[in-house]
Design a protein that fits this description.
Blueprint (H helix, E strand, L loop, with lengths): L1 H18 L13 E8 L7 E7 L3 E8 L9 E6 L1 E2 L11 E7 L7 E8 L8 E4 L7 E6 L10 H16 L4 E6 L10 H7 L8 E4 L21 H4 L16 E5 L2 E5 L8 H14 L6 E5 L19 H11 L3 E3 L5 E9 L2 E2 L7 E5 L19 E6 L8 E7 L3 E8 L4 E8 L10 H30 L1
Parallel strand pairs: 9-10, 10-11, 13-14, 14-15, 15-18
Antiparallel strand pairs: 1-2, 2-6, 3-4, 3-7, 5-6, 7-8, 9-20, 12-13, 16-17, 16-18, 16-19, 20-21, 21-22
């Protein structure tokens, strides 16, 4: 039955390809409120960043705690959209909006809705803030290639995310994506299809993949454009190198996350300089460093350090220098996890190096592996065709002692789970309000002491 389903899916996709990508995508039209994303703020305990499209110029975001179910105590942010700043393939017209919500409370759930000037009211979207206690979970996905004519890709992704959240006892409010959540970045209805999923309930932190750069299906790369469509739908922290908006960093609880756009390598030197600045700027404020990009650091195909778009040698020295804990990637549609590596070898203590991952795909585009792996370097490698429904999805459970990675197959069954021990002590979150109180109190005491000394001196001089 499973093999029959696989063959049917592939036959259906083949027919779509014969018809041509364009013919299947001619009728996309923006909804009154569309492509709503909740992206991370730089400090995920207190802020988020929103991005959305509308068919009207002006709209208002109403947000409040989730316990305020009727929005009676909601705060609001009014936005005037920018008219079609980026044109999609079929010329959809829309207004682009961005907003930053600050001053949120950690470990608190919120919801929001968007109302247009005409009175049109969107559905509800939700998110939760980081707790800053060193104990949480997050989801990792990639290479879903959502397409409105192949709904099974998104639907399967949704089901696996639900299993992961249940396994994490509902402590999963952040989703990391290593790219290619849509099939073609230039097609509006690909993004609309992806919007039907669980991202409406999570903080979404994705980076571009090669398909995000695509206009139509590429032939020798001639239709690869740039990150414009990704930038037209996302609003991550604006703290990346000036030359590339699609690089950013943020802190979520005990992890410093760094997202890298690996598709355009013409700014690699600027990216590396920025990477070092981020690590120096945040020194001593995190327990773990997690870096993620689309193109793999280690080849999922051959389990080695070389090959097309393989980035290990580009980043090895910096990752070793700063002690990156996890390096997540995608593209090859083959699951891979390395040992903790330093300079191409497993760390002698088994802890101090970087653990590299490649994610499997979700859907119907399994790829085969080549050759045998070196067990002294690679802990695990699984071809997508060996996973149920040729699909897989990962989640991580973070604690002060380490990070546990778990891989699910297309049935939602656990394929394997590995514990990666911490190499730094947990860093307590700073209570800025308390710091300011202490500073103010100290200043007050000092001023009082000075005034008292002056008064005593004056009395003695009389």
């Amino acid at each position: 039955m499973l093999n029959l389903m696989k063959k049917s899916i592939k036959t259906f996709i083949g027919l779509i390809c014969l018809l041509g990508a364009g013919t299947a995508l001619l009728f996309a039209e923006p909804n009154p409120v569309d492509l709503v994303y909740t992206n991370p703020g730089q400090d995920c305990a207190h802020s988020v960043r929103l991005s959305w499209h509308t068919t009207e110029e002006k709209s208002t975001v109403y947000y409040s705690k989730a316990s305020d179910s009727d929005f009676k105590h909601a705060k609001k942010i009014t936005s005037t959209g920018v008219y079609t700043p980026v044109e999609f393939h079929d010329g959809e017209q829309y207004y682009r909006h961005e907003a930053i919500i600050k001053g949120l409370k950690r470990d608190t759930s919120y919801h929001y809705k968007i109302i247009l000037e005409s009175g049109y009211e969107s559905g509800e979207y939700s998110f939760a803030m980081a707790d800053d206690d060193g104990e949480f979970g997050f989801l990792w996905t990639g290479d879903v290639h959502t397409h409105p004519d192949i709904a099974i890709r998104r639907e399967l992704s949704e089901k696996l995310a639900e299993v992961a959240e249940k396994n994490l006892d509902n402590d999963m409010d952040l989703v990391i994506s290593t790219g290619d959540e849509v099939c073609y970045g230039a097609y509006y209805d690909n993004w609309q299809e992806w919007q039907k999923g669980y991202i409406n309930r999570k903080v979404w932190a994705g980076i571009p993949g090669n398909h995000t750069y695509y206009d139509v299906f590429p032939k020798k790369g001639q239709d690869t454009v740039d990150n414009r469509w990704w930038c037209a739908t996302q609003n991550p922290p604006d703290n990346g190198p000036e030359v590339m908006r699609s690089n950013f960093w943020f802190k979520y609880d005990s992890i410093l996350f760094i997202g890298i756009d690996s598709i355009d390598t013409s700014y690699l030197n600027e990216q590396k300089k920025w990477f070092e600045e981020v690590l120096e700027q945040n020194k001593g404020t995190y327990q773990y460093i997690v870096v993620y990009q689309h193109y793999p650091y280690i080849s999922g195909f051959n389990g080695g350090f070389g090959g097309t778009n393989v980035a290990y040698y580009l980043w090895m020295n910096l990752f070793d220098t700063y002690g990156v804990d996890l390096a997540l990637s995608g593209d090859h549609h083959v699951y891979l996890q390395s040992n903790a590596l330093v300079n191409k070898k497993t760390a002698k203590d088994g802890v101090s190096g970087t653990t590299y991952f490649v994610c499997p795909q979700i859907g119907d585009r399994a790829r085969e592996m080549q050759g045998t792996i070196d067990p002294s370097i690679i802990k695990s490698r699984i071809t997508s065709s060996d996973l149920a429904y040729e699909s897989g999805l990962s989640y991580f459970k973070v604690s002060k002692e380490g990070i546990t990675h778990t891989l699910l197959d297309g049935n939602g069954d656990i394929v394997e789970s590995h514990f990666i021990p911490a190499k730094r002590p947990y860093v307590e979150a700073k209570n800025l309000a308390l710091v300011f109180v202490l500073i103010f109190a100290g200043a007050f005491i000092m001023i009082a002491a000075i005034v008292s000394a002056i008064v005593v001196c004056k009395k003695r001089n009389k």
